[in-house]
Amino acid sequence: MQSAPISRKLRIAIVARRVPLPLYTGINLVIHHLAARLSADNEVLMLVTDDDSPRDAGSLPFSVRACGKSGYGDEGAAVAPGATYSSRLSGYYGVPDSRKSWLEREVADFNPDVVLGFGYDLAAYLEGLIGRWPVVFDPIDSEVLYLWRRLRSGRLQLATIKHLVMSVALARGVLSRCDRLVTVSDEDTGNLRFITGLQKTYTVPNGVDCDFFRPDPARAPVAGRIIFTGSMGWPPNAQAVEWFLELCWNRILQVRPDASLVIVGKGMSDSQRAVFARHRNVQALGFVDDIREHVLAAEVAIAPMISGSGIKNKVLESWAMARAVVATALAARGLQATPGEHLLVAEGHVEFANSVILLLDNPSLRDRIGSAGRGLASADYSWASMADRMTRILAGAVRS
Predict the structure, then answer these.
(1) pLDDT in tens, 140-150
(2) Looking at the domain assignment, is residue 237 inside a domain?
(3) Are residue 193 and residue 275 in the same domain, yes or no?
(4) Most distant CA pair in the chain: distance in Å?
């Protein structure tokens, strides 16, 4: 792959816009778990640009420095008509020059072997670091690919078109100059490699904590129970639930009138909750403190994604708890899984509904697929193995 790890500890400056807490979002999960494992064998300092008073940062297993209100002003927030290309990007992504200066001073003070940045909207912060230190940037997934799919799904909004244009500009103007790029799936990696022209673009998939998310043989699932988990503030999740309820749900209820759907995820608006709850046998719970009890109470987990990109944490977490998953092909992209063995992949609402019914009606098939998913998550998607991949990429950037 990238090269063997170097024998000494690395000094790694990790840059993020916010402290990766709480662990309710995909990007927080990625940053938290990778940073924690990298810090076990290296010297890690996290620099937080936009979280002025980060709470619970002391609970993290690595040092954190935040910009703080005294370290910045409001300059750079607006885009002036005659602004330069660089300042337009900074203005669009809300990156004040004073915070960029703070970041450059902090990185210089720490003097790392390598800088590791996370999150697409962080990229404009990195301009002053590129060329001075090796910079590895992990946007998680390709915003360009996500926005393109959003447009192709029929949502031709002017704001989305503008955001896509700026995302391409950011990729070509900043990401292309990094030493290495990393995304969570081969598809996202290929997209950014094509957009930026940077060949040193690699894949480090999302992982899952199989000790935290694990089966509980003492807990029997509720007959006919189906679970969907995901932030309702992220449009692809909301679209997935709407698609499933509008096109699949009545077909499932016709065959299995005892079926019930539980929808769990932060950011559920009152209007979303009202729309979801209009459907029979649907519980729209929204945010819960711990999703595990709800996933374990289900017989089937669903990932009916019709837009978006990246690897779906909902699939990995359901696998880790040995729950059988039905996913669209889009939701399954990037996963090294065999359809029919580790999950059922269905295209179109009829096939998706029938796949859910098949699992509800066949406990042995359900258990077999759930167990295979658990085995795959444990073998190939541990955070330890993902951190090892990232270490090799960082070491390669230092060597070059």
Answers:
(1) 999 999 898 88
(2) yes
(3) no
(4) 66
